[in-house]
Amino acid sequence: MEFRYLGNSGLKISEITYGNWLTHGSQVENDVATQCVQAALDVGITSFDTADVYANTRAESVLGEALTGQRRESLEIFTKVYWPTGPAGHNDSGLSRKHIMESINGSLRRLKTDYVDLYQAHRYDTETPLEETMQAFADIVRQGKALYIGVSEWTGAQIKAGHALATELGIGLISSQPQYSMLWRVIEDEVVPTSRELGIGQIVWSPVAQGVLTGKYKPGQAPPAGSRATDTKGGADMISRFMNDDVLTRVQKLQPIADELELSMAQLAVAWVLQNDNVSAALVGASRPEQVRENVKAAGVKIPAATLERIDEVLGNVVEHDSAMTSATAPHTRPS
User: Fold this and answer.
1) Is 115 annotated in the active site?
2) What is the CATH number of the domain that holds 152?
3) Is 256 within a domain?
4) CA–CA distance, 104 with 108 (Å, rounded to integer)
5) Phi, psi (5° rounding) for residue 306?
């Protein structure tokens, strides 16, 4: 495993970070989830990302159980707040002071820890003053319940405004967690330049485009049984934008490139996002321990510039570059 600084902070995280969205407490049984976490630890992963909303808090509980007995100081644990949890009451979502303060306490209890290394705003809350949100985060940092603050799927302008307030309050807003892959590059024109300017690092999710970049989905064929594209709990919705024959045909043409680099298609996809020097870590999930052991082989891989150009040529116009998609795919009212 290799490690990178998260933004311009002094915090180092494993460049392959284990995430449990759509798996723990949902797709896989708890004993398998524990095996996946153990596999991550065995291959040198020290950073673990979750959120209170994943499986309506169950994912945090499963991760907390799986990490029991590990030396806390040797781990970096990240979680998030914004989406509805519990019975989804009128104050059970968003970034109000009330929801943030109640949510951090619940997350710490489920994760069985006194603090998280990184506490992230899971989306931007259009219905709460940003000043209120950042003051609540600052108080959580001062209480020692979180060491650093981050955001997820914020636009460049939102990141800049949040960072300015964090600086005034004397806390470190050091990370952004956006979707990023060979097929989804909407952060490159706005979010990444803003983050570079402010010393913020990216922890990117879905580097294999919900599995599309593994090559397992074939043009003209039904998705494999049990795959994310058949998951009615949310996976199918997320992957649907990539499930067309033009995208799938072009993805198949990446196989010779992966072969030349002696990588699997999934390893190539994860290694690709890590070529961006503003990316601090790539989030990978797993439903089986062997997936963790395979994905971690992307750590430290250097892809030649000429090969990166070939990838661009192969994928052509199926790549999404429009920076406006960050805002377009965000909730514009607080969810309930």
Assistant:
1) no
2) 3.20.20.100
3) yes
4) 6
5) -65, -35
Q: What predicted TM-score, i.e. pTM, was given to this entire model?
A: 0.93
Question: Over the stretch 26-80, which tens digit does the pLDDT of each residue have?
Answer: 555 678 888 999 999 999 999 999 999 998 899 999 999 999 999 999 999 999 9
Residue with tokens 């998280």: 116
> Residue 67 is part of which domain span?
3-328
- Residue 181 CA neighbour count, 13 Å, CB half: 27
Q: Let me know if residue 285 belongs to a domain.
A: yes
Distance CA 246, CA 57 (A): 37
What's the number of domains the chain is made of?
1
* pLDDT tens-place string over residues 142-162: 999 999 999 999 999 999 999
Q: Where are the beta strands (DSSP E) in the chain?
A: 3-5, 12-14, 16-19, 47-49, 76-81, 116-121, 146-151, 173-176, 201-204, 279-284
Q: Are strands 16-19 and 3-5 parallel, antiparallel or unpaired?
A: unpaired
In a domain, 16, yes or no: yes
User: CA quadruple 174, 178, 180, 185: dihedral positive or negative?
Assistant: negative
Which token pair is 11? 């915090």
In the three-class reduction of DSSP (H, G, I as helix; E, B as strand; rest coil), residue 155 is classed as coil
Residue 240 pLDDT grade (very low, low, confident, very high; cuts 50, 70, 90): confident
Residue 143 lies in a domain: yes
CA angle 177, 317, 187 (to 5 degrees): 20
Among candidate residues 5, 18, 54, 148, the one labeled active-site is 54
Cα distance between the two ends of the chain: 40
